[in-house]
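Here we describe the complex-level prediction in full. Unlike the single-chain runs in Section 2.1, the two entities below were treated as one system.
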Amino acid sequence: METFELKVADQDGKVAVLEVAGYINNEGGEVIAKEARRLIDAGRHTLLLDLRATRIINSIGISLLLEVLEHILEVKGTLAFCCLTPSIAKTFQIMGLAQYTRIFPDRATALAELSSGQ
Amino acid sequence: MAEPVRVRLVLPRAPRAELLATRAVEEAGQRIAFPRDTLAEVKLAVVEACLNAIEYGTGEVEVEVIAHPNDAHPWIEVAVVDHGPGFDPSQVPRPVLEDKLRSRRKRGWGLELVRRLMDEVEITSRPGMTRVRMIRRRGGE
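The structure predicted for the assembly as a whole is:
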C-alpha cells in the first residue's frame, strides 16, 4: 500500500533529481530530508523533486519538506517540484509553497529551465 | 433516488492506518462516480483528520464515510471521531509559511488543510470526544 521509494536520478548535472514514489509521510519525508541534506552538503544546491509517482502526502511529510526548503534557502539554492497531482498541487498552493519553490508541470520543462538558470 | 453508500471503520493504532480511511473514501466515492481529482482532495483532508485523531486522541478512532449519490449534486461526507482530551478549534493558529520556515516547529498544517480542501468542516470537541465532520461537494472549490 503506497510503498515509498526514493531514487536519486541525476547526480552529475547542475540539477539533482530525486524521484519520489509512494506516500510522503513521516518515514518518507525523513528519507527525502536525509538525502536532500546529503546532496546540499555535497554542494548540490538545485534540487528537483519529481513527484509523478506520489499520490498522497501528509502534513508531517510536508513539514519535513519545509526543513529541506529551509536548508536550501540557507545556501541560496533552489528547491523545485514537478509532476504534481492536482490535489498535491492544491495542497502546495494552500501552503503558499510557490512563493519559495519552483513548480513545473513536467520534468523536461523543469530541467530545461533550472539548468539554464532561468 | 439511490441510497447513500456508507462505510464505517475503526482505525487500528498502527503506522499508515490513515490510509485505510482513504481506501474507504475511494471506494465510496467511486460508487457515486465522484470526480477523481476531487476525491483525491477529500482523501488528503481525511488523512489529516485521521492523523490528528490518532496523534491527539486516545482509544479508538472511528471513521464514517457517506457518499450521497444525488444525480446533479453528489456529495461526500466524512466524520472522524476520537476520544482524546478535546481541543478548542478557535485556539488553533493558522499556519503561515514564512513563520514556519523560521521556526523549529514546522508542523501545524493539518487543520488548515482540512478546512481548505473541504467545502464544510464542523468540529465538535469536548473532553472525551472530538468529532470532525467534513463535506465535499462535486464541483466545490
